[in-house]
From TrEMBL:
Residues 352-523 form the Transketolase-like pyrimidine-binding domain. Its EC number is 2.2.1.1. This is Transketolase. Pfam families: Transket_pyr, Transketolase_C_1, Transketolase_N. It comes from Roseibium marinum.
Length: 662
């Protein structure tokens, strides 16, 4: 058997596993795996550094299947290479409930899947973050411990999505030379030929953003190997435009949209078996070919051993620190630093905007947690995410800890996911809360994947004032609270800001959003408490000795309004309590008893939040009173806007009195 024969039979093993699994599931996407099998075979058998026996080896090369619909390409590879989590039975259970082989690759379903993909373009964005992470970690731990590539397979769809522009221009700017993207240039998407919708010169586009661009016949293994070698030597990220035929080998459907996302059908499969000379039963891989794949799986075991040796020889401090950061543990000094600062705040009772409070807290955090990587989407001075410890990362210097992401919220959030997935880093970002809409798909994926990324989102309501309704979040609290496994925080003062930061960092299993104000807020927590009150999601800030006639629930900047109203109600002889609600999600996680006690039995329940009502009925019931927004905001000085929209102490007092008949 010639090398070429062997290559083709190995690639055909991928093709037929994909064909057979899609056929058995009666759904899926055979076209991409069939078209990209040659690229994948060359990459995985000759270049990619990985060890199936230790899938999470920190210095492995990363492979991201950005075109996640081609999931059977990845599952076939993982099975053939000998990854334990991907048995033949798993492939036979493709797309079934509980299998590791979901419709699209799901991070956490099995070791070997580096990220969840399916929403096109996200994988490309993640890969940029992974490549940034690699460069950052090289600066911190040296080439002996960190030296890997990030490879991506992206389709036409990934490149058409807007996120691709943010991702590629960021990567080009940062000169991420160890990022290598294969573009599966098959000219086909779902509606037919790509030319019916797009006529971009993709290579010119990438080149314009500082990429190295190469092209290759995606079915010629020698040419593919040569082009990867060239890409590896580049001083810039590389796009490899690989001309392929979607559904390669299918006699009537190859090269057409028919093979993109539907089973081939018995007749076409028979024809494909004949055309590719693959006379085997469904899911059968001849033993010589399976052996060849398994041997390919062992290819990097020596590289892994060498790495282990270098790791063992590293100094004890670097070893311990490398392992701690990769495990995701916070440093032992973290809790004490936070406690000390909390005590100081209780003494000093500062008045400041929570965005400023966040900066003050971050200055404490960044001193003791060296793995945080800050940033902002061109709003550094507004988001207050940069502290003295975080010098900017530049194309030539990755020793810094602060990324100027540019005006690229979506690219930023996707890259942050990639950094978190890479391991060893805790990314946090800055942006305006209103533009959470611009990066929501990546935030959702962070939640789905259970990744610790922290989004500082400032200018969180009409309280931002003059910039007006285009910049004033109204529905965003509700929209973010709706994402499962995302913790949305809206702290009311500096102490709550500290507590919410602490909770965000301690939550390894999901992302957090901190919604922070532009306007000043007083300290509302009057005494030092070791307990993290925000951990309960909602807590009684001001209690009443007797059964309270009124309970006022509020979040963020409106807690001040609630406390002012409380004072006036008390003066009028009306018993009231104030509940601060920094996080709906953490409240829901409390015991039923806690929740029932907290909501209480006041005949009048009022919620105050400068957003829409959605979600607050949980606290105040259908018949509760809501003081907040009903529609979009307006442009004007913020105090006047609060008056204009009736979100005031007087409004709260008035509704309380009216309902009490007082
Ligand atoms: C953000 C997003 N929009 C739409 C889809 C639905 N979708 C899945 S694949 C696809 C076409 C992709 O075409 P291409 O990347 O060329 O893949 P190929 O046809 O080569 O497999 C579309 C629109 C998606 N998965 N993600």
């Amino acid at each position: 058997m010639t090398d070429l024969d062997k290559h083709q039979r190995m690639a055909n093993a991928i093709r037929f596993l994909a064909i057979d699994a899609v056929e058995k599931a009666k759904s899926g996407h055979p076209g991409l795996p069939m078209g990209a099998a040659d690229i994948a075979t060359v990459l995985f058998t000759q270049f990619l550094k990985f060890d199936p026996t230790t899938p999470n080896w920190a210095d492995r090369d990363r492979f991201v299947l950005s075109a996640g619909h081609g999931s059977m390409l990845l599952y076939s590879l993982l099975y053939l290479l000998g990854y334990e989590d991907f048995s033949l039975d798993e492939l036979k259970n493709f797309r079934q409930i509980g299998s590791r082989t979901a419709g699209h690759p799901e991070y956490g379903h099995g070791a070997g899947i580096e990220t969840t993909t399916g929403p096109l373009g996200q994988g490309l964005g993640n890969a940029v973050g992974m490549a940034i992470a690699e460069r950052l970690q090289v600066e911190r731990f040296g080439k002996d411990l960190v030296d890997h590539y990030t490879y991506v397979l992206a389709g036409d769809g990934c490149l058409m999505e807007g996120i691709s522009q943010e991702a590629l221009s960021l990567a080009g700017h940062l000169k991420l030379n160890k990022l290598i993207v294969f573009w599966d240039d098959n000219g086909i998407s779902i509606d037919g030929k790509v030319e019916i919708t797009d006529s971009t010169d993709q290579q010119a586009r990438f080149a314009a953003s500082g990429w190295n661009t190469l092209s290759v016949d995606g079915h010629d293994p020698e040419a593919i190997a040569a082009v990867i070698r060239q890409a590896q030597a580049s001083d810039r990220p590389t796009l490899i435009a690989a001309k392929t035929t979607i559904g390669f080998g299918a006699p009537t459907k190859a090269g057409t949209a028919k093979v993109h996302g539907a089973p081939l059908g018995a007749e076409e499969i028979e024809g494909t078996r004949a055309a590719l000379n693959w006379p085997h039963q469904p899911f059968e891989v001849p033993s010589d070919i399976l052996d060849a794949w398994r041997i390919a799986g062992l290819r990097s075991s020596q590289a892994h051993k060498d790495w282990q040796k270098r790791f063992a020889e590293a100094d004890a401090e670097s070893r311990a620190e490398f392992e701690r950061r990769n495990r995701g543990d916070l440093p032992a000094t973290f809790t004490k630093a936070m406690m000390d600062y909390k005590k100081k705040l209780a003494d000093e009772q500062p008045t400041m905007a929570t965005r400023k409070a966040s900066e003050a807290v971050l200055t404490v955090i960044n001193e003791v947690v060296p793995e945080t990587i800050g940033g902002s989407a061109d709003l550094t001075g507004s988001n207050n995410t940069k502290t003295p410890q975080t010098q900017p990362v530049t194309p030539t210097d990755f020793s810094g800890r602060y990324i100027h992401y540019g005006v690229r919220e979506h690219g930023m959030a996707a890259a942050m996911n990639g950094m978190a997935l890479h391991g060893g880093l805790i990314p946090y970002s800055g942006g305006f809360l209103i533009f959470s809409d611009y990066c929501r798909p990546s935030i959702r994926l962070a939640a789905l994947m259970g990744q610790r990324v922290i989004h500082v989102m400032t200018h969180d309501s009409i309280g931002l004032g003059e910039d007006g309704p285009t910049h004033q979040p109204v529905e965003h609290f509700a929209a973010l609270r709706a994402i499962p496994n995302l913790t949305f925080f809206r702290p009311a003062d500096i102490t709550e800001t500290l507590e919410c930061w602490q909770l965000s960092l301690e939550n390894r299993k999901g992302p957090s959003v901190l919604a922070l104000t532009r306007q000043n807020l007083p300290s509302l927590r009057k005494s030092f408490e070791e307990d993290n009150f925000c951990a309960r999601g909602a807590y009684v800030l001001i209690d009443s000795e007797d059964d309270a006639a009124v309970t006022i629930f509020a979040s963020g900047s409106e807690v001040e309004i609630a406390t002012d109203a409380h004072r006036e109600l008390s003066n009028a002889g009306i018993t009231a309590r104030v509940v601060s609600v920094p996080s709906f999600e953490l409240f829901e996680a409390q015991s039923d008893d806690y929740k029932a006690d907290l909501i209480g039995t006041s005949p009048v329940k009022i919620a105050v939040e400068a957003g829409i009502r959605m979600g607050w009925d949980r606290f105040i019931g259908n018949d509760g009173a809501f003081v907040g927004m009903k529609g979009f905001g307006a442009s004007g000085p913020y105090k006047e806007l609060y008056e204009h929209f009736g979100i005031t102490k007087d409004a709260v007092v008035a509704v309380a009195k009216e309902r009490l008949g007082a």
